[in-house]
């Protein structure tokens, strides 16, 4: 069967409608639930101003552990096996946390010889895990698409595919209030794990279609080269072994040196996530202060993110596919962060920013991240090789996104310890400075992003080298 016929069958497969649909529904349920638990008087840390930055500081280490685990599974079992195993592990981790929260709340259990509720010891790690697991899984779904679509096809399909994820996020976000009133917060969290398990059926169908038609993503076979023990020890001493954090750093450094656009993308993600973290800190502090009731707060946060996805969906279906026919990706890279800069500047000039002013800045940032940035980000990987799409993408997606958040969170925790708690206006000024950094990083990245014609030529060159299995 010819490849182009197989590619055209992909939009009709379960992959586009379920493999991404279910995980995004689950995450849209998990996000407001974990925020509500973390900021609740009964289950979280509302009286500790530094709790949120402190928790975010742990996201990066957990993400590194997830990344090392993923790399090991990818090497042993390939992309399909890695997706199946990581999905199952994340689903049962969330299900276990849900059960533990329910038991702890019913029994009013406290830590041995203290008055600390056990549920508080669950809500903190759960919040960190929720921040870490989503990128680990979604990067694998998008890596698959980057492998089976050409640059021209990706420009056509990525925006509406992302639109489907926005639809699922809207459904999940708006369902939070309904489900939490009937199943409580712990029961609603369990629905996330169910959604992930359902996605396994869709991912299995997608990979089966790809394998049947000969375009399943596979790495190039490495030639076995005999080396003596002395040379092997020398290679390991110089970082040629790929074990642990050191091996990950070596791998990333070599990959970034070979593919400069990935290094620029990594820096851009660090900058954008620094802004996202600062706005999130403002948002969490403001929403906890403004809406004290746990269930109402969970519903409000769910509806807020649903609204974000409504705007994202509109752009993904009605605007971006049309726009990408007339402008180059590099031009959109330059324009996107400028909108956020305008909103954060307005927020920074407010003496006491309201929840709505802060929410507007976060909404604009998230809409651009979910629509334009998601499209542009994925288009970068399409013409690249297997290592860039599956290992490089995970390094950037899992570690890059979370490292930016952790660095800012650690910095905020340190500055809070030295100077005291920052007010919302100060945090807003810091957010505006982060927006300026994002603009600069995006501009530098845009100079390395190829035109659509150049991307197609690069894709054709890689395909001729590696054959059908990219």
UniProtKB/TrEMBL annotation:
GO terms for cellular component: membrane. It is a multi-pass membrane protein. Residues 220-231 have a biased composition (Basic residues). Its main location: membrane. Residues 214-242 are annotated as: Disordered. InterPro entries: ADP_ATP_car_bac_type (IPR004667). Residues 232-242 have a biased composition (Basic and acidic residues). Pfam families: TLC. The keyword Electron transport does not apply. It comes from the Eukaryota. It is found in: Membrane. GO terms for molecular function: ATP binding; ATP:ADP antiporter activity. The chain crosses the membrane at residues 21-39, 51-70, 264-288, 300-324. Keywords: ATP-binding, Membrane, Nucleotide-binding, Transmembrane, Transmembrane helix, Transport. PANTHER family: ADP,ATP CARRIER PROTEIN 1, PTHR31187. Belongs to the ADP/ATP translocase tlc family. This is ADP,ATP carrier protein.
